Amino acid sequence: MVKAMLGGDRRVVVLTGAGVSAESGVPTFRGRDGLWRTHRPEDLARPDAFAAHPELVWEFYNWRRELVRKCEPNPAHLALAALERAIPNFLLITQNVDGLHVRAGSRKILEMHGSLWQVRCTVCSHAREDHGDLPEMPECPVCGHLLRPGVVWFGEPLVPGVLRLAIEAVGKADVFLSVGTSSLVQPAASFYQLAKDHGAVTVEINLEPTPSTGFMDFALHGMAGDILPELIA
Ligand code: BV8
Questions:
Q1: CATH number of the domain within which 129 lies
Q2: Residue limits of the Deacetylase sirtuin-type domain (predicted)?
């Protein structure tokens, strides 16, 4: 049924979360593998944590960069890239910052929480893509001040233009898929409701129920790397 909806001139929007990268070996945020040392990611992915302990937060991000560098896109990422090529009116909105969707070939993508591979200055406007090994406390080459990861931390606003594009696309979707997200982090967690309010068919793909499962038209339980390739086959 869901498969039949992913075709023709339908406008398809897909929201992904950490569960899509789990099969690549990237720890999810809230799963059993989510801890880094004794810290929960959401306790470190915050501006106040960076202000108080910049070296610890950079150690956390450099650890993630190092780990993700060794990971490969999995069948879920590849299936979504293939879906983009098959559907003219398609948009992928990801909460993930690991860059695996782009490495899998996705191009119609909004990385709404930024990227591990972006760094920017805490003082001046310097910002760059950087896939290299960063020092423990990377400094801005322009003004010498401390750089920060180019991600959106908890308590920080999303980039206005990115959020507007996401809301516009979700509000026009005919089909909205929510894949591998615990549906806890706002504003992404409200997208399914926005899609539903505008008449979209809503589908959730997850290992287990989430707070939005009961509101979805379809809930497919299983591994994203198994289900997504089936949907596009
Ligand atoms: C905002 C980048 C407003 C960093 C991330 C107090 C003050 C201010 C804001 C708030 C506040 N209280 C609450 C908020 C809002 C807050 C929020 O939602 N908090 C939550 C925790 C309650 N949101 C924000 O702060 C956002 N900004 O609201 O701004 C504002 C406006 C003006 C001025 C100031 C503020 C910003 C949120 C962005 C945070 N940054 N990432 C980094 O990554 O280091 S979010 C982070 O969580 C990741 O991006 C992650 O993707 C995301 C969501 O988590 P999930 O992806 O869902 O991952 P999770 O581990 O939870 O779940 C994985 C799922 O996959 C599970 O369901 C599992 O079952 C499933 N799964 C696992 N394996 C598989 C699978 N499914 C299928 N197949 C598998 N194989």
A1: 3.30.1600.10
A2: 1-233
